[in-house]
Amino acid sequence: MNNTYILTSESVTEGHPDKVCDFIADSILDACLAGDPSSRVACEVLCKEDQVVLAGEITTKTPVDFQATAREAIREVGYTDPAMPFCWDRVNIVSLISRQSPDIALGVNRETSQSGDQGAGDQGMMFGYATSETPELMPLPILMAHRLAEGLAEDRKSGRVRWLRPDGKSQVSVLYENGKPKKITDVVISSHHDQAVGQAEIREYVLRDLAPRILGGWFDGNIRFYVNPTGSFVVGGPSADCGVTGRKIIVDTYGGAAHHGGGAFSGKDPSKVDRSAAYYCRYVARQVVREGLAERLEIQVAYAIGMADPVSVKVDTFGTGDNGRAEAFVRTFNFRPAHMITSLGLMKPIYRMTTNYGHFGRPGLPWET
What CATH number corresponds to the domain at position 206? Predict the structure, then answer.
């Protein structure tokens, strides 16, 4: 591994088309869990111009108006301008939702699972990661990218910057030396904006207000800034680009600093180990770093559908600790789905609060305690 390298991570605002879809899916999930904690939900969403498609499999005892839930989610994000194709009360919503396959339920339900316990909702591998480089135990590039994107959203919603619109993206590059972050080298901000504002005013806002306020001690005059590099970002959100659930999996996790198993989070109930095991692995990785067993740690678990015990557990400290001791500590934790779900309280309607600005490194989430 090189002693000096640059790591870049990106984030997006809640008005990004893909995140609009994720938020709709998680809103439908929460609505189901609120009345029936045992709901099985796998909800996918597509948004484009004035069309919204809801698809997937949902088995729940809760009567949920999927279309009304989707419209309210769009309104909350901020797409309320009737002059744009994508507006909460004007979009056409198509629902293609059926019940969960009984073959999957056969392996997941404790009563019918071959393992005699709740089985994994699918095969696959999940990763958890933690690093001591920040107090949040997150990589600095993704942490700063999330904060910049969230800053854009907060300034818009508070009315502090009236020309901001819901869509937006951020990107942060950090120089590392011997595994430690030394400085931010580059920042990219693409801010969706009203037609009346000019490029000079947007750049002034980012360089003189947003960046110094958000980056804090990491801000300096040598950072290269790229603000709305195309020169204009007037048409944004699903009015301009197609959005689909599950396309921001690196934004949702560690910004490329760690591996990813490929499974998305939003719209999935916790019986899907794509979500519950990824959350639990993050929880365990945090404990390893907090115990001082490693400065940086990645955990991989893998499952067979319908089986409770993982088929494998792998631990890597990247040379920052005793791998044997760290692995022994990790193996004291119970990675069976029923335990992970119960111990983290994952059957509660908590998922709308996870959709935006990262599923990890934020206070208030049970796997971050």
Answer: 3.30.300.10
pTM over 0.90: yes
Tell me the β-bridge partners of 128.
299
User: Using an 8 Å Cβ cutoff, are 315 and 259 in contact?
Assistant: no
Please state, in angstroms and rounded to a whole number, the distance separating the CA atoms of residues 287 and 166.
36
pLDDT lower than 70: segments of the chain: 1-2, 103, 105-107, 113, 115
Contact call for residues 188 and 170 (beta carbons, < 8 A): yes
Chain centroid to CA 104: how far? Answer: 25
Written as six digits, the tokens of 176 are: 């590392």
Q: Is residue 117 part of a domain?
A: no
**Does some domain include residue 161?**
yes
Give domain status of residue 203, yes or no. Answer: yes
As a residue count, the chain comes to 369
Q: pLDDT at position 245, please? A: 98
Tens digit of each residue's pLDDT (9 = 90 or more) over 125-175: 999 999 999 999 999 999 999 999 999 999 999 999 999 999 999 999 999
126 bridge partner residues: 301
